[in-house]
Structures are given as C-alpha cells and as structure tokens.
Write a structure and sequence with these properties.
It contains 12 helices and 11 strands. By secondary structure, the chain is α/β, with parallel strands linked by helices. A 9-stranded mixed β-sheet has the order 3-2-1-4-5-6-11-9-10, with helices on both faces. Helix 1 packs parallel to helix 2 and helix 1 runs parallel beside helix 11. It is globular. It binds beta-D-ribofuranose and calcium ion. The site of beta-D-ribofuranose has 15 residues, from helix 1 and helix 6.
C-alpha cells in the first residue's frame, strides 16, 4: 500500500478525505498532521483524533502550526464548516491524545525512516510542509510525492477572484512548497469544481456503512446548506477527497506541467500563477524553478464511484 501522511484542517471535506483514505486498501496512513485553516489548530487536532477513533485506526496525530509563516491569520471558515469544523453537530471530543512531536518533526521523521516511499497529502494551508523543509531540507529529495489540494490556474478562486482558501491562508509557505524541488502534484479548483458530490451519494454510503456514513451525512448537512444558500448549488465540490482518489488512481486526472508561483501580497495575494512547461518569460521570478504537475481534467463519474465504493 502507498504510505501517506495527511496534513489537514478538518473540516468537512477533510473528514471525507480522511475516512476515504482509511478505507482504501491501497493506502496506508502513517499519520495525520494538523494545521489551522477551516478551524484553529487545536480544534483541527481534536477533530483529526476523533476521526481516527470513529474509524478504529490508531494512527498518530501530530499537532502543527497555529498561524501562517509571515502573516496574520485570516478568519476561520465557520460559515462553510461550522465553528467546530464538523457542521456544529455536537460530535463528542476525542479520548486519544496527540503525538508529542510537532507536525513538521513528525513529517521529517517519517520521511527519513522510509526514504522515497512517503507521499505527503496536504489538505490545508501549507505551513507545516514549509516548516518541515526548513527543519530538514534533505526531505525534498526523499519524499515520493506531494499531493496537495489548493490553488487554481484557470478557474476563478473561491475566496477572491484569483485565490483559493488553502493557498491564501499561507501564500509564503505555498510558494516555498512549489519551489522546493520535490515532486508536487496540485489538485486545485480547476478539477475540484468539476466534481459535484450530491447528498444521495452520502445517503447510500450511510446505508452500507452506518458508522462513518451517519457522521458524514450529519456533518455534511451544514456544508450542503452553505453550497445551496451561498452558491446556489445542489451538492458540494469534491475538494480534499480528490487527493485520495488521485493517490489511488492517477489515471482519473489529466495533468499539465508548469512552474507555479504564488502572489504573496497585494490584491492578487494567494493567486497561483502557472508558466506552462517550455515557455520562458522576460520577467524575473520564473527561471530555475521546478515544474509542478497540475491537474486540469478529471473523470468525475469515476472519481465519485471510487469514493462511494471505497466507503
Ligand atoms: C479548501 O479549503 C478548505 O475550506 C477545504 O477544506 C479545502 O481544503 C477548498 O478551497
Ligand atoms: Ca481542508
């Protein structure tokens, strides 16, 4: 099975991704590392621990950064995920305790223990990954792949016309992650906006798998209401769980390669800009940067079927 660490700010779609990964026989979750974002990092850590208990999987959970590298934190996304991150359903707190290490240390230790084998799946702001690189720059050559949900190169943003939430929450960290030279695959709004998850899928999961299905259906109600009321959409976009589908079967996605830079200030803060592979520009900032694999196409029917069948 493919060894992954999931860096996450749970979050309703994070919960979908984590439960999906726990159920996938081809994925081995070495640990969850937590990050501020949808909620504060303490709440994110409790939520991650609760998801391990719900699944009966005693994988370690390591607490990560509480704030971006260089900026003041933005507001949490209560209006999307609820103040508790799980749609305000009153889910009980966890009994398990976090790993004593920081998220960044946990990432470094795990990568060095299994060189070339660990995939980092990032579902929130990229601060922990940037901190891990600072702690041990050698991990860049030893990670199998970084698969992140974030950004948008052609599609409109979701918190500004050009910015996606995970990237704008720590644009400096994101720019460091795209520039580190490890193999990065970006699944941004270009693909996640093409996959619409309907409540009926969760209803069917609930019938087949009541433990996790009940939780997901309850938590997702708040999320579906947000989509209906704010965006006029019946269903929710398949953001974080798309990364797990990609890890399980990359052929579900069509990708291009390009150099990604992130705007770290001004009106476009948080924008992910792509210089397509092979193009050079007479403007500083684009030469000598590594290529990122950017997903631009997705087979939505097969992605949703994989999610439903696995859960
Ligand atoms: C991303 O932002 C968060 O609110 C979601 O959990 C997802 O990771 C989508 O832009
Ligand atoms: Ca997330």
């Amino acid at each position: 099975a493919r060894k992954v660490i999931i860096d996450t700010d749970p979050g309703i779609d994070d919960a979908m991704a984590i439960l999906f990964a726990f159920k996938a026989s081809t994925v081995e979750v070495l640990g969850l590392t937590t990050i501020f974002g949808n909620v504060g990092v303490d709440r994110a850590t409790d939520n991650a621990l609760s998801l391990t208990e719900l699944s009966g999987i005693a994988t370690p959970v390591a607490r990560g950064a509480a704030a971006p590298l260089k900026m003041d934190p933005r507001q949490h996304a209560d209006y999307v995920h609820g103040a508790d991150g799980f749609g305000n359903i009153g889910w009980p707190g966890p009994k398990r305790k976090p790993d004593p290490r920081s998220a960044a240390q946990f990432i470094v230790d795990s990568v060095l223990e299994a060189p070339g084998e660990v995939t980092l799946v990032a579902l929130g702001p990229l601060t922990n990954l940037a901190l891990a690189l600072e702690l041990e720059p050698d991990i860049a050559g030893q990670v199998r792949e970084v698969v992140l949900m974030g950004g948008a190169v052609h599609e409109t943003g979701n918190v500004s016309p050009v910015a996606e939430a995970n990237i704008i929450n720590d644009p400096h960290a994101a720019d460091a992650v795209f520039g580190a030279g490890w193999p990065v695959t970006m699944l941004g709004l270009d693909v996640t906006h093409q996959v619409l998850l309907k409540a009926a899928v969760l209803d069917r999961i609930r019938q087949a798998n009541p433990d996790q299905g009940d939780f997901l259906s309850q938590a997702a109600e708040h999320y579906f209401n947000f989509y209906r009321q704010s965006l006029g959409i019946d269903g929710c976009y398949f953001h974080d769980a798309a990364t797990i589908a990609y890890v399980m079967d990359p052929s579900l996605f069509g990708c291009r390669h390009g150099v990604i830079r992130v705007a770290t200030e001004g009106l476009a803060i948080g924008q992910t800009m792509m210089a397509p592979e092979g193009r050079s520009f007479p403007t500083p900032g684009w030469e000598g940067r590594p290529l990122t694999k950017v997903a631009v196409e997705v087979d939505d029917v097969r992605v949703l079927a994989l999610f439903e069948q696995t859960l």
